[in-house]
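Hey L., structure's done. Input below.
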Amino acid sequence: MNIVLSRLDRIGDLILSTPAIASVRRSWPDAHVSIVCSRYNAVVLERSTDVDALVVAPVGRNVAEVGRRFRGRCDLAIALAPCSPDLTLAGATGAPVRVGYTYVRRYFTRLTAKLYVNRLAVSEADPQICERHPELKVRHEVEQVLDLVTLAGGRVLVGNLSIPVEDVDRHAVEHVPAAGIAFHLGRRWFERGSTFESTLALIAELRRRFGLPVAVTYGIDVIEEARRLSAARVADVVVGGLSFRQWAAAFEKSRIVVTVDTSATHLASAMRRPTVVLFEHRYFQLSSQEWAPYGVPAVCLRKPAGESLEELAASRAQVVAAAESLLGSI
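Output:
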């Protein structure tokens, strides 16, 4: 049996798909499993034992061309993302069973998806509905993607996120203090309800309040801000240029992780680390359910609507209180 999976979107979403990928492997242990990823998110699965072939879709190419490579030799295709490129790719394989999902209010996609997949799940998630009805419960993305495995006929489900870290990765971050607070410096710390100055004050307060080392990690999107933060000397170490698994190893060394809504949230969950996440003010009701930390103690907070000194101070106090509650539970 030949199975083709597809997830072309973000790193964090592919991390959240690792239980479904492991479930495919357990449900069809003798199958040959290929997964099509993007050049950006393929790092998540580079060492995965749950796939036999990792195919990176060329940038700027029609994904249907990639799907057609499997035509005539694919028994099952699953689009793990609720996105048109993934649905198109699954359809192009021509597999007898083609599975995918979309969101309840994406009416056009729901109509056109039937051209590509013959088993379609519809997610209850919708940002506007959730804001109007905060009592509405939305399942985590992990659970929604696992439903696709069941829809495909899978019978063995795995619930844990999985990112393998090896000693070579741990050796690369030996300079990162252990048993402290890992703080990921995503761009959302500097916009819409948070500022660079407030972030500096927050890191300094976390360090002072708990007497623990603070290790700040960052990516290429915030290099200049990371330099400014390093010069301010509010953290014990500010480290960038890490590979994906070195980044995971840095989180593994920490007691808790503090981040905004980025892939760091889901990497922390894969490393089994309690996590504080500051979500965007807009669509908080949906985001804090569907993309919350998974399977770990966590506190989800909402950014303030504005950036007054009072609002920013209150937001910092919430993050510190959340960190205290998680540290106290360890």
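Residues 162 and 289 are 20 Å apart (CA to CA). The chain has a mean pLDDT of 96.

-- N.
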